[in-house]
C-alpha cells in the first residue's frame, strides 16, 4: 500500500513538473509564432515533406520556447505582482529558477542545433531572436516604451526564418515578410497593453506609448 502511494506521488510530481515546463515554454504561443515561420517556408516554395521543414518547425518551437522561458526567469519577481502571471511555474513555486534555467538552456541549444542543420543563416536568426527578446526587450520593459520597438524585432523573425530556411538567401521577399509582421505587432501589442495596463503598472512596465492610458497613447495606437 505504501509503495503504491509513493509511486502515485512520484507520478503526480512528474506530471506537475512536466506541465510546468510546457507552461514555461508557452507552447500554444510558441506554436502560433512558428506557424508564421511555416507560412514563410511555404511562400518560398519550400518542400513540406522535407527534413528541413521538420527541423524548422521543431527547432522553431524549441528556440521560441527557450526565449519565453528565459523571459519568465528574468521576470520572476514581477510575475509575482501581476494577477495574470501569479500562477506561472516560478511564482507558484512549481519550478525553481535553477530548473527553469537548465531547461531553457537545453531546449535553446537543441533548437539552435536543429536550425544550424538547415543552414547557418537560420541559426543566426534563431540566436538573434533569443538574445533580443530575453536579454534586451525584457529588461527594457521597465525602462522605456521603446522596448515595444525592440520586442517587435524577434517577433518579426519567424516568417523571415521560414523563408530563409527554404532558400538560404536574404532578399526582397523575406524582407517584406519581416516588415509586414514588424509593423503589425505595434497595434496588436498596444491593444493588449491598454487592456492590461493596471496589471502592468503593478510590475512597473512602461509599455504604452506615453506609459499610461491617455489620449496621446490612444492617438498613437490608432495612427
Any overview of this molecule?
By secondary structure, the chain is mostly helical. The protein contains ten helices and no strands. The protein has helices at 2-25, 27-43, 51-74, 76-79, 97-118, 120-140, 147-167, 172-195, 197-203, 215-222. The radius of gyration is 19 Å and the shape is flat. The model has no long low-confidence stretch (mean pLDDT 89).
Task: Give descriptors for this structure.
flat; mainly alpha; 77% helix; 223 residues
Offer a quick outline of the entry.
The chain is mostly helical. The protein has helices spanning 2-25, 27-43, 51-74, 76-79, 97-118, 120-140, 147-167, 172-195, 197-203, 215-222.
Q: What does the main sheet amount to?
A: none
Give me the count of strands: 0
How large is the count of helical segments? 10
Gyration radius (Cα, Å) is 19 Å
Low-confidence stretches: none
Global mean pLDDT? 89
The residue fraction in helices comes out at over 70%
The ordered H/E elements are: HHHHHHHHHH
Strand content: under 5%
End-to-end Cα distance: 67 Å
Shape: flat
Class computed from helices, strands and strand pairing: mainly alpha
